[in-house]
Structures are given as structure tokens and as C-alpha cells.
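Morning F.,

Quick status update on the modeling queue. The single chain you submitted on Monday has been processed. Sequence for confirmation:
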Amino acid sequence: MNSIKGFIVAGTHSGCGKTSVTLGLMAALARRDIKVQPFKTGPDFIDPGHHTRAAGRDCHNLDGWMLSGETLRDIFSRYTQDADACIVEGVMGLYDGYSALDETGSTAHLSKELNLPIILVVDAGSMARSAAALVQGFCNFDPETPVAGVIFNRVGSSNHAQILTEAISLTDVPLVGCLPRRAEIATPSRHLGLVTPEHLEDLEFKYNALADWVEENLDLDQIIEALPDIPVQPRFDEVPMIPRTRIGIAQDNAFSFYYEENLRLLREAGAELVPFSPIEDKVLPEGISGLYFGGGYPELAAFDLAQNTKLRRAIADFSAAEHPVYAECGGFMYLMESICKD
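C-alpha cells below.
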């Protein structure tokens, strides 16, 4: 049985910097030619898009609320077969999930399902000795949650880092490192979350800057060496399905919110997915029997989408002919008569 090094990057809360840390770690390992498989906890389209670019491999979602433990483990093993390491980004705070009394869907829940250790990211920007108390509280809240180390983020100075290092020594939690405050390398945000990769320039520069930030302040070799080996269940090679139908799928800067696992299941069921651009293309793909419009930001491309009247008419005619059309989120907005941006 194969094994890989793997861990979950969790946070004390949303906004503590776990996505920046995750992207920095993925980019740093990838440029060492380490095959790192990215995953994201829970339902999220935006962060996985960044993970895919930073790691150079498609990111997959692991949603403990929607999926059974068996399915979570199947997805995990499916995409780690040829990987050297895996990094899972958590969701919200470590214990935030289905409800206040139920851990289902939380990062802690996922760590137990996959037997993955957790590296906890703490925003230490306005803390000193209290940071150790915070970490100790997270560990004591559920002793079965495997917190293997802590990263202090937004550290103000070398003196601040020294205080935090001394404070955490009062606990049994290993310190992975202290990351200095670097607001200029953070990925910008907007409504719904981070700005998507499709709408950012100089992505390679941004990911390299995050990788440098991580490399300069964390001992990656020590981190990898200290991590336990995670067994990966072997899989049989699957017989590819001969496509039985063609489905047009809207994919461009306006429509990019798709779960890779959903697309795989469609192909497995016999669908050939044919991408097209509602912004650029004037006609629908030939020979399709259905249309799939995922989410995204159609409001940001509203003018270009509206100007492409030929394709809009083709979509309307396709639907009027009683062909199946499935749309969600931004894709559903696009099929309406109008979009109000104000």
C-alpha cells in the first residue's frame, strides 16, 4: 500500500490567513517538484480555483456534510494515488460545521474521517501570551482532534515572534513557525470571497511571493519529516465509459464554479462535456443534447454577455425545443431576462 505525507491547514476563524498559508505551502512544495494534491473542506468554488493554479493539480472538495465518510475516503484515495503529498485547506474555524452541537461538516470532523493531522493557523497580530491560551483551548475543546502544530500568522516583529515562541512552550503543541505580517501578498477579496484566478493578473508572481514567505519563515523539510505517513488505499484502473451523449458546459471568465467531482461523475455516466464560452462564442457546440451552466460572476461580464445576442437566441431556441438545460447560481442568473447590477 502506498503512503503519502499529508495534513490539514485549519484556522481559528475565517480571515486568520489559512488560505494564504495553504497557497504558500502548495506553491513552495510544487516548485520543489513535489506532487502535492490539493483539497478543500466543504462547499467552495473559489479557493479550489487558486489551489489548482498554485499546486498544478485539480483541487477537489471534501464536504463532510454532503458526503458520507466512505465517499470522502474514496475521493481522497482516488486523487492521491500518484501524489507525493496532500494539503487540505479547512473551512471557517476548526470546529465550525453543521451546528453548535454537531461537528459534521467541520474541519475537525474531516480530520477524523481521513486520519489527517492538523496544523492550526492563528492570527497573532494583536496577541502575545494569550496566543498560547487560545491554542490550548482549541486542543482541549476536543482532545480527539489531532492538532499536530501551530503557525502564528501576522507576527509584527522578531521580538513578537520570540514572545509567541516562549508562550507556546507552555503547551504541548509544537510551533511550526511564525509568519510576519505581509499584507501586500494577500489575495484580494470581494463579495463571495477571494477574487477568482480568472480575474487576477500576475498569478505566478503572487503564488511565488507566498511561497517565498513560507520558505523564508518555516522549515518545510522539518514539517514534512515530522508528519506521519498516510496510507493511500490502492485502486483498480477504471474502464473508461464510451460517451453516449454530448453536453455543452459554459466555461469562461463569467462561469467557472464547478466541482471537478461532479464533472467526473457526468463523464463516468457517459457524457462528453463540451466547453463553450457565453462571452465569446456565437453558436452552441454541435451535436449537444443538453446544456450545463455553472456559477460564477456573470454580473462582471454583463455587458459582453448581453451583447452576444446570437448565442442568447441559440440558447433560447435550444430550450424552447425542449432540450434539457441545467443552471445554478450565476448560470441561472444569466438565463433570466435581465441582471440588475446596482
